[in-house]
Amino acid sequence: MPRYRILALPTIAVAAAVSLSGCFANPLDGLVENVVQGGVEGLIENELGENVDVTLPGQDGGQLPSSWPSDVPTPPGDVVFAVASPGNWTASIVVDGQSAVDRAYAELEQAGYTLDTEANFGGFVTRSYINDTYQVSVSALPNEAEGFTIQYVIIEQGTQ
Question: Which band of pLDDT confidence, cut at 50, 70 and 90, is reported for residue 46?
Answer without folding.
Answer: low
